[in-house]
Amino acid sequence: MGSLEYAAPNGGSYLVSLVQTKSTLAAYSLLRYQGGGGTPIPYSFGIDGDLGVMGLAGSHLKFINGVTVVAVEGTGEQADNQQSVLSFAKRFAGTLRDGPGTIPPLVLHLPDWEKKHPKSGLEGVGHAVSLPVLRALVGPSGQPVLDAVPFDGGVEAATATYEGGRLVVVEFPTPQHAFDADAAVNGRIAELRAAGQTVPSVYKRVGNYSVFVFDAPDAAAAEKLLSGVKYEKDVRWLGRNPRAEEIAVRAYTSTMGGVILTTLIMTGVAILLCLGIGGLIGGAVFLHRRSQKAAQQVYSDAGGMVRLNIEDLNTPSPAAKLLGRAED
Q: N or C of the chain: less Cβ packing under 10 Å?
């Protein structure tokens, strides 16, 4: 951690503090965490296009740059000038190389996280990569059972307050890690319940998540809040996928089945179109010829009936057209 003081041409000065963390998740957690000695500063957290995730309280401003948490405070003539501090922080951020900080994915997986604040969704949302920070965010009601949560190997947690209680989601990097933690948490809950101490309103393992609900008004509200947590799994093989051939065969079968079905449907449609168009054309020709025949006046000497003229059949054939008798 280091602090530098900068003098501005307008006569003011600014005190800048830099805190280096191990990861962007730790930086976000430190930005949101209001622990430490003294009275915490009531920051209003939000998202700025130039600074990324930031917190602002009067002339005190904090923002994330990669894995670094930057704190800017106006001193001297700029001690109470919020706009001046914000403008200086944006110019200072341009000198840093890592770029604006972002919201951790786990926070984005909280139910209705964007509704926690009308602009940014960051108010009331906490993030932790260590047990002390999570304890401070949750408060006394969650401290006994959270002692069983192992914060090692990339474990992180997100928490927010809802009408149905306080929700805590702890994410573990592997299924085995989540399984071991689930066993430890269930054992701890049993111990606390037997000793008559405070336990979560409801607890459940969801994928690689351990989900807690504290201070719920009733069991139905706790279950409803917990049901809003969805685990989105992403399985990746370190080497060759042993099921690659099975997946390829399934995809090929599905594709060929679709092709055959489409061919049959198109053939049936083509036959129906041909029959329909042929029927229309044939019907039109038939009706046209019938109308033409009905329009003709046919002479008849048989009372309107058709009479066969067979008189020509009794007429002797011309001899000139017959072959002579063969001579012996």
A: C
Cα end-to-end distance, the chain, whole Å: 142
> Which of 214, 221, 226 is CA-nearest to residue 145?
214
30, 114, 145, 169, 227 from 35: Cα distances, Å? 9, 24, 21, 20, 31
- Per-residue burial over 31-65, b if 16 or more Cβ lie within 10 Å, else e, is bbbeeeeeeeeebebbbbeebbbbbbebbbbbbbb
**pTM beyond 0.90:** no
CA distance 224 to 219: 9
Q: What are 152-205's pLDDT values in tens digits?
A: 878 888 888 888 888 899 999 888 899 999 999 999 999 988 988 888 889 999
Residue that the structure tokens 């996280």 belong to: 113
* Helix, strand, coil % over all residues of the chain, rounded to 5: 40, 20, 40
Q: Are 211 and 149 in contact (CB under 8 A)?
A: no
Q: Using CA atoms, how far apart are residues 123 and 113, in angstroms rounded to an integer?
A: 9
Stronger pLDDT, 116 or 149, i.e. the higher one: 149
| Residue 46 · residue 117 · CB < 8 Å | yes
Q: Kindly report, residue by residue over 220-260, the tens digit of the pLDDT.
A: 888 888 888 888 766 677 778 777 788 888 888 989 999 99
Amino acid at 279: G
pLDDT reported for residue 118: 43
Alpha-carbon gap, residue 47 to 101, rounded angstroms: 9
Q: Which two tokens stand for residue 244?
A: 């690659």
- Determine the Cα–Cα distance for residues 34 and 42; give it in Å rounded to an integer: 8
Structure confidence at residue 261 (pLDDT): 92
The helix (run of H) or strand (run of E) holding residue 214 is strand 209-214
| Residue 133 CB coordination number (10 Å) | 20
CA–CA distance, 184 with 189 (Å, rounded to integer):
9
Q: Measure CA 190 to chain center.
A: 36
Residue 282 pLDDT grade (very low, low, confident, very high; cuts 50, 70, 90): very high
Q: Considering only CA atoms, which of 71, 129, 63, 127 is closest in space to residue 100?
A: 63
